[in-house]
Amino acid sequence: MAVNNVVHVNECGLPLNAIEWLVKHHQSKAQERGQMIRDLQLKQGSFVVDAGCGPGLWTPLLAQAIGANGNILGIDISTEALVTAQRRSSDTWYSHYVQYKRAALERLPIDYGEADLIFSANVSQYLPDPVATFASMAPYLKQGGRIAIKDIDFGEMHFHGIDAGLQARVFQARERWEWDRIQQGYAYEDSWVGSKLAGYLRAAGFKDVEEKTYRIERRFPLVPNFRFYLQGIAEWFVCEGAPYLSREDMNAWLHCFQSGTCNVMDQEDFMSEETEYVVIGHWDVSRPRYYSDMHIDNARLNHLDS
Question: What is the DSSP letter of 287?
């Protein structure tokens, strides 16, 4: 998802939701992301909502999975991202059955009971109340429809070739800052959300929740797109002044990724490891009532008023 008016940027001034960074990040993990969509085993002719579609990077993968008789609706709150998505899909083989609309996740521009799948990638980390948001999306699914949430968890990230103590201090400082940063006027963010998603979907009332993990490893020499991705991530860890990290550790961390002579990414023993989560929940309209149903009821009222 591309988020409007994001406050934080990395040390080079690049927001981690900037379209250029999103595109190169996506391309650097094309193999794993293609497998994520294949593992959803979408039926031909399905109607898929890409909730928080950003610049439409997942559209080709979804389109290939559902075929020419399917339909995709991409929604996002960023006009810039939607314009980019529309431009990327124009003159493609799937352009005639893809639409993009500006909308919030809690108020999708479709009828209730219409979607076969709601797919949402790298959005949940920005949701202050993910249970409420997921519960609000549920009524838009058909009976037996599914929601698939894909996101990161930096508790699973590790860089070989960097001092383990330094890594631990950098990661712990960032995690602590994410608990406090909203009180300082920054947007909500939880970059450790991946391992929490299954619990969020169950709390939102989804049944038969499945969690799949995808291990992503890259070794020296790195392809340019993945190097660009890691550069942004490394700088992001110490953005916003890194208030819980010492100045010495910040400088040491940035030196690892910015040095022209001893950049860690140029070392033959360098390896990057991380895990991405895809969590799937099934929707049953006849299920017992949940506390989270208040969010669904509120969503219905808002939908009728719109």
Answer: S
